[in-house]
């Protein structure tokens, strides 16, 4: 039997899009097909498999148990085909697009990525720094660095760094109130971003249960790295990850007045689609960054 007869590749392509997008209409828009054509291709693959792959409801389709088992394998197969074609063209490792939170990108990745490029000179790196959640099904991002609990469906997750935070400020600002000797002394100063959920966690752990942060002027700078720059400038007390600011501490621009550090169980993770886990450039970056930050996690 011919391969095209045994495996209706075009129908599989339509099935992969419909399963990923959860909609025949959206699959048709992505592939430039009518909804009727999408339905016909889905029917072909269902006839080939011998089982229904979707439960059809008004304005909604959901995968059956068989469809849910088939979908990730089809996605992986198409990713492998894409990588194989790219390899034949000689551009498998032409570019690695990394999406990262702004703070991790500026405080660690941008300073260390040169080592990766020296080890892999045939991989051109492009770094996009923002806190938006990447949709791998719609964007050309290869890997992302996210803050969270590592439980994103369909993605492989590797913990990179445990997030622990504590108040930090400039020594000069502390001197304006005669020094910071107790956690409550911090409340004599401007709190940078008092609505940050890290603040009440830290104050509670420090034994200050009534910091009245809600009454303070709201200031949102958008990223921890910007709050750190404001703290260096003496604009207030920021709650930060101290390991990111060891240079500022060494230069006397910031200090951590108390040893107490807290965590909200949201850590930094490297994530990428499960279907692309064997892509050479992704494997190379994964092994490098885990080796740099968490060598025991490499398998």
From TrEMBL:
GO biological process: DNA-templated transcription
Record keywords, A-Z: DNA-binding, Transcription, Transcription regulation
Lineage: superkingdom: Bacteria
Chain ranges passing through the membrane: none
Start and end residues of each HTH lysR-type domain: 7-64
A GO molecular-function annotation: sequence-specific DNA binding
InterPro entries, A to Z: LysR-type_TF_proteobact-type (IPR058163), LysR_HTH_N (IPR000847), LysR_subst-bd (IPR005119), WH-like_DNA-bd_sf (IPR036388), WH_DNA-bd_sf (IPR036390)
A Pfam entry, by short name: HTH_1
UniProt family annotation: Belongs to the LysR transcriptional regulatory family.
Official protein name in the record: LysR family transcriptional regulator
């Amino acid at each position: 039997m011919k391969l095209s007869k045994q495996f209706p590749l075009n129908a599989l392509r339509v099935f992969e899009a419909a399963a990923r997008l959860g909609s025949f209409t959206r699959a048709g828009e992505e592939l430039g097909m009518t909804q009727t054509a999408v339905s016909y291709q889905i029917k072909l693959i269902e006839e080939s498999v011998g089982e229904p792959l979707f439960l059809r409801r008004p304005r909604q389709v959901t995968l059956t148990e068989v469809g849910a088992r088939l979908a990730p394998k089809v996605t992986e197969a198409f990713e492998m085909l894409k990588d194989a074609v790219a390899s034949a063209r000689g551009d498998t490792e032409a570019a690695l697009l990394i999406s990262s939170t702004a703070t991790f990108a500026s405080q660690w990745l941008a300073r260390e990525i040169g080592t990766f490029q020296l080890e892999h000179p045939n991989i051109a790196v492009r770094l996009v720094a923002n806190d938006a959640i990447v949709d791998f099904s719609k964007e050309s991002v290869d890997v992302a660095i996210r803050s969270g609990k590592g439980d994103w469906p369909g993605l492989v997750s590797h913990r990179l760094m445990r997030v622990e935070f504590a108040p930090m400020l400039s020594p000069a600002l502390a001197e304006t109130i005669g020094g910071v000797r107790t956690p409550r002394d911090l409340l004599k100063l401007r709190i940078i971003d008092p609505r940050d959920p890290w603040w009440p966690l830290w104050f509670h752990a420090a034994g200050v249960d009534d910091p009245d942060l809600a009454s303070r002027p709201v200031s949102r700078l958008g990223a921890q790295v910007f709050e750190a720059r404001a703290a260096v400038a003496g604009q207030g007390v920021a709650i930060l990850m101290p390991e990111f600011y060891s240079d500022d501490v060494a230069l006397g621009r910031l200090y951590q007045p108390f040893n107490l550090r807290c965590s909200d169980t949201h850590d930094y993770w490297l994530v990428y689609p499960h279907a692309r886990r064997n892509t050479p450039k992704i494997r190379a970056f994964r092994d490098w960054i885990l080796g740099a930050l968490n060598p025991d996690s490499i398998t």
